[in-house]
Amino acid sequence: MSSLADFQNEIYLNGLGDALPALPTDLTRLEELAGAKLSAQAHGYVAGSAGSEATARANRAAFDRWRIVPRMLRDVADRDLSVEVLGTAMPSPVLLAPVGVQSILHPDGELATARAAAAAGVTQIVSTAASYEIEKVAEAAGDGPRWYQLYWPKDRELAASFLARAKAAGYSALVVTLDTFTLAWRPRDLDQAYLPFLRGIGVANYYTDPVFQRAVGGPVTEENRDAALLHWVANFGNPSLTWDDLAWLRERWDGPIALKGIQHPDDARKAVDAGMDGVIVSNHGGRQVDGAIASLDALPAVADAVKGRAAVLFDSGIRTGSDVVKALALGADAVLIGRAYAYGLALGGEAGVRHVLRCLQADLELNMALSGLTRPSEIDLDVLVRDR
Ligand SMILES: Cc1cc2nc3c(=O)[nH]c(=O)nc-3n(C[C@H](O)[C@H](O)[C@H](O)COP(=O)(O)O)c2cc1C
Ligand SMILES: O=C(O)C(=O)c1ccccc1
């Protein structure tokens, strides 16, 4: 019996703002509140997307074109939202997407997120561009489930070092992000000439790495700081990678691997052919290709192409429980949230992320139960109609 929905009664009985953070329970309202709290630069970085932000808007609009058709009298008393994805047990089909540079949101950054995720048993995907070293994030997570997200650097030795460190620190699965070998045209950041890395945020996992240090002639200090930054810029991404390069990765990581940024069914098939265990249907929250298809619209064809052969995860635009139901109905096994928890972190640190997780999971369970659904495995296309 799931207890994720108990949060609803807890709020009614005790209220928000006493023991619980006084944050809205409608997670779509967090962005605006975070805007009032964060610097214009940090808010622009997180809330912003690529170009005219057409894809970011399309991501949200796509959810609105589907409607859930609730079913009655189905005995939904016994509910269980738990799933297992890539060998990891989860209380619900919700994970925390890799979000780098979290110290621009809150001084405790990924450490606060790790504590909140671990307390909920929710899987945190930790970015190569985290503001804290992945070993320290792992320590904050304790027994909490964690996956590692690789930004595949040009230097193969550095990539190998990242993988070895992630393995040693207990990250159980690998997520390889393909859609961001370089940052897109992002007007909000360009207009403010703002990049976290130029301020030394998001480079901790590079600067403390022995392979990186060898390349810049020792530990990064005041003296070689500019050289280190140039080396980071030159190495962050590799635009010349092809599908053939995945064999190298497959040989060096013995756990599950998922490719993030898949939008075309042929790419999903190629991922399976290359021995990958999962795909993450994502357009990076609209932050990369402006004018790209809404991620939800890309999901059904990708799921059709590989379902049963690979885990299908989804992100870009998830804000509510009904969004999760729709993504699962359209073929996802689980979803990732990005900005939703990033704003929680900005507004309330660890408690803010915990709040977001509790709200989203309670909303999801109630939405499912009231629709006649007790388990994620019951959610399929029959649950939805296209809104005309
Ligand atoms: C501030 C910010 C930083 C991000 N950093 C990373 C990252 O380091 N690695 C990565 O794979 N994706 C990164 N993403 C993309 C997220 O993993 C995810 O794909 C996206 O946020 C999903 O869309 P949503 O924000 O609408 O949930 C980032 C997103 C944001 C908003
Ligand atoms: O901003 C992003 O979307 C992103 O993915 C990223 C890339 C490098 C470092 C930090 C975040």
**Form type:** globular
CATH topology: TIM Barrel
Q: Span from first to last CA?
A: 36 Å
Helix content range of the residues, please?
A: 40-55%
Can you give the mean pLDDT?
A: 98
CATH architecture: Alpha-Beta Barrel
CATH superfamily: Aldolase class I
Describe the main β-sheet briefly: 8 strands, parallel
Ligands bound, unique: flavin mononucleotide, benzoyl-formic acid
Question: Reading side by side through the largest sheet, how are the strands ordered?
Answer: 4-11-10-9-8-7-6-5
Order of helices and strands: HHHHEEEEHEHEHEHHHHHEHEHEHEHE
Q: Which ranges are low-confidence, i.e. pLDDT below 50, for 5 or more consecutive residues?
A: none
Write up this protein.
The chain has helices at residues 6-14, 30-37, 40-47, 54-64, 109-120, 134-141, 156-168, 187-191, 204-207, 210-215, 225-235, 246-252, 265-273, 295-306, 321-329, 339-370, and strands at 66-68, 83-85, 88-90, 94-96, 124-127, 146-150, 174-177, 257-262, 278-281, 311-314, 334-337, 384-386. By secondary structure, it is an alpha/beta fold. It has one domain (6-386): Aldolase class I (TIM Barrel, Alpha-Beta Barrel), CATH 3.20.20. It has an eight-stranded parallel β-sheet with strand order 4-11-10-9-8-7-6-5. The chain has a two-stranded antiparallel sheet with strand order 1-12. The site of benzoyl-formic acid (173) has 7 residues, from loops.
